[in-house]
From TrEMBL:
Transmembrane segments: none annotated. PANTHER family: BLL7171 PROTEIN-RELATED. Belongs to the YciI family. Pfam families: YCII. This is YCII-related domain-containing protein. It comes from Planomonospora parontospora subsp. parontospora. Gene3D superfamilies: Dimeric alpha+beta barrel (3.30.70.1060). Coiled coil: none annotated.
Length: 107
């Protein structure tokens, strides 16, 4: 089962200790074959909306940028519970904040 885990920006700058802990966590998950991809996302982005036949493209940043997704991880695990455990471990490393886990359907 694949899950996309996203996290919102915390507003605090990471320090060397956090970088080291995250590097160790990423290495462990990669070696175990759990972590398929990870990355940070630009804060602005581009919003594409549709209404009827109209398509509107708007460059960010947007007023609700504090709600924007700051990073992601795509993981392959055996169960929903295992995905939750990976997210719990991540949150323990990075501290206060919010992450969302969504199952990815298809290949």
């Amino acid at each position: 089962m694949r899950y996309l885990m996203t996290t919102k920006a915390s507003g605090t700058a990471p320090d060397e200790k956090l970088y080291a802990a995250m590097a160790e966590f990423v290495e462990e998950l990669t070696t175990a074959g759990v972590l398929l991809a990870t990355g940070g996302l630009e804060p602005g982005g581009i919003r594409v909306t549709s209404s009827g036949d109209g398509i509107t493209v708007t460059d960010g940043p947007f007023a609700e940028a504090k709600e924007a997704v700051a990073g992601f991880a795509l993981v392959e695990v055996r169960s929903r519970e295992e995905a939750i455990e990976v997210a719990r471990r991540f949150r323990r490393i990075v501290g206060d904040g919010e992450s969302v886990i969504q199952q990815v359907f298809g290949s």
